[in-house]
Amino acid sequence: MNFLQDIGKYFLMIKTSFVKSCKREIIYKQVFKEINDLVLDSIQIVSILSFFIGGVVSIQMALSLENPLLSKTLIGYATRESVILEFAPTFISIIMAGKVGSYITSSIGTMRVTEQIDALEVMGINSLNYLVFPKIIAMLFYPFVITISMFLGIIGGLLAMTLTGVPSEAYIQGIQMDFDSYHVTYAYIKTLVFSFVLATVPSFHGYYMKGGALDVGKASTKSFYWTSIIIIILNYIITQLLLA
Amino acid sequence: MIEVKNIYKSFEKSGVLSEINTTFYRGKTNLIIGQSGSGKTVLLKCLLGLYEADSGEIIYDGLSSKDMSSDDKLNISREMGMVFQGSALFDSMNVLENVRFPLDMLTNIKESEKYSRAMKCIERVNLINATNKLPSELSGGMQKRVAIARAIVMNPKYLFCDEPNSGLDPKTAIVIDQLIQEITREYNITTIINSHDMNSVIEIGENIIFLKEGYKIWQGTNKEILKSKNKEVEDFVYSSELLKKLRQ
């Protein structure tokens, strides 16, 4: 029963965050701040992770394709497909559920605990519009992070193959082989859906949290748990709808 | 002036406030006192509009909560200033930004006017040398003063303070109490303070409402409370053995 109530509360929160808007210049300022905190600040960790995981994926592919009858170009092809279809949009989003999600939950949760949200409400300000709406808009730039992740994942694979002794021409030929742009479209559709989840689910856990400082930590953990689960379930549903 | 008529409020079928009838006067410091769990905060939140009472009405200078449209509610909330127990300052903003925040959010006045109004309030609470400091760089008493400045920057008709001197040393607490009283008289606002601090009661209690287990037990002034023969009030005011002996 509580679970259903929470789902209702979540959708009402989203609805409320879009109505009774604060002044436009205030929202612009908040959106730019959130783009910096949520998107730009994530580029470094996403770049490091993508580069090295791209390398690992290509090495594992090379290991699986040891048969001399199989072309080495398949390594590049398989790495590209893994990175674009799954690693960059889904696994980076789960990592972001930890990084961005816990940041959102803890910052809003702390505002709840320290009565800053009550202060906004008493002033007659729609606190959801002020706090959640700019995060939703800022996360529209999240596909930019995923583009970097895709690029660096493939580059990481190339470097790993060069170090392993696989000719780089074969890898580059592989990443150009049978390219289907629809796979990229599918990846970006997923990314946009995940970006909405990444902005709203942690906001929900922070906004409606109760208790003190210790509970902010608990709310962040709960937010990561639910954001990851929702991303994984939506990943399956979107894949079933768009690729099956 | 705020009139409260027969307010009843419950949470999960358990009554927290019952049959509350009282008046909070303009230009006076009105105190709601009582032990923890007596319903002080719930009453304050009902007055602020953060909680809606199950029954009864609250009349803000002639406008009843029963007859209010959502626009009326918004207008009333913009005439309210609130000083929270923990100050509730925005961590990422400095003192000046915190104080001018309501002006930025709710008014369309010129930047220069916003600045001068915010500075006037900061000056009023004696923090002119701390305008660029962040809340984390301020002492508890200074944070409370910033919260007061932010609460009065919109020239409110009603000022609400939830335990304004909790966590402060007795001397700073009295400074904050006196500041609130001065501002109340200067701006002629209806100030309602939620407190369980007897120093505040004696210092600034011009109209005191004593709550116990959700009921209003007693109402009077700071002079009357010391002489009250009401058993519950006596137990609250003279809670320590030392005070009881002193009274005898």
Please explain how this structure is put together:
The complex is a heterodimer of chains A (244) and B (248). Chain A is an all-alpha fold. Chain A has one domain (24-242). Helices cover 83% and strands 0% of the residues of chain A. Chain A has eleven helices and no strands. In chain A, helix 4 (73-113) crosses helix 8. The two termini of chain A are 34 Å apart. The mean pLDDT of chain A is 93. Chain B is an alpha/beta fold. Chain B has two domains: 2-79 and 157-247, Rossmann fold, CATH 3.40.50; 89-155, no CATH class. Chain B is built from ten helices and ten strands. Chain B has helices at residues 40-48, 70-77, 95-106, 111-124, 140-152, 170-187, 198-204, 222-227, 231-237, 241-247, and strands spanning 2-11, 14-24, 29-33, 55-60, 63-64, 80-83, 158-162, 190-195, 207-212, 215-220. The model of chain B has no long low-confidence stretch (mean pLDDT 88).
Biggest interface pair, counts: A-B, 15 and 21 residues
Largest sheet of chain B, in brief, is: 6 strands, mixed
Terminal CA distance of chain B: 38 Å
- Shape type of chain A: elongated
Strand content of chain B: 15-25%
CATH fold descriptor of the largest domain in chain B: Rossmann fold
Give me the count of strands of chain A.
0
Mean pLDDT of chain B: 88
Strand arrangement across the biggest beta sheet of chain B: 6-7-8-3-9-10
Strand percentage of chain A, roughly?
A: under 5%
Uncertain segments of chain A: none
Give short descriptive properties of this protein.
heterodimer; A: 244 residues; mainly alpha; 11 helices; B: 248 residues; alpha/beta; Rossmann fold; 2 domains; six-stranded mixed β-sheet; four-stranded antiparallel β-sheet; 25% strand; globular
